[in-house]
């Protein structure tokens, strides 16, 4: 499913060849039910408004720099029973102590999705974490590029969204036309000047947070170790995806492209 934009000549050619369909500025494979998608778009908008109203529950935390919606809600393709996927960026060396606090607050408010949750409607799935020194996604492929482009930032402190885009400008090679404009290269500068006392205080606070975060990391890793499968966990990143949807989507994409090529 794609909205109007990108290389329109290519899209029009695919429509004429009946490879895809076009309706109300949307392009999709012929097997997609656009009426169902319209309903899902309305549901996604409702979920977006709900999370925007409630995100203050964790958005105030000083070590959180940014929060973005991902998954079906960001793609405007959510069903009423879907959870809400969140991607959280923390200050460097604070990921694990931030995660501990966030999970506690969300759990106490009855919004936390757990691995064994049965009814997940509107629960928060805190499945993607990075700190501000590790913004670049390690895997560069069409699936990750699409996830990055469709992400909707609902908390953005100190321009973290733009920094994230700068670190992932490789996305441009997978995106066409208007979509890639979001990823135009812009030089970031920092002209702030600090006194020696301020720098000294900052250093000691950073050292304390690094030590505390290390203990939080070791404690959470020990708790999770027996449950980890395909999840990717390091000191500075955490991706909790027990089922590798990315691999499934890429395989399906390659199969569809192969079928299209064989029809020529």
From TrEMBL:
UniProt cross-references to InterPro entries, sorted A to Z: NT_sf
SUPFAM superfamilies (alphabetical): Nucleotidyltransferase
The name this protein goes by in its record: Polymerase nucleotidyl transferase domain-containing protein
Organism, as annotated: Candidatus Cerribacteria bacterium 'Amazon FNV 2010 28 9'
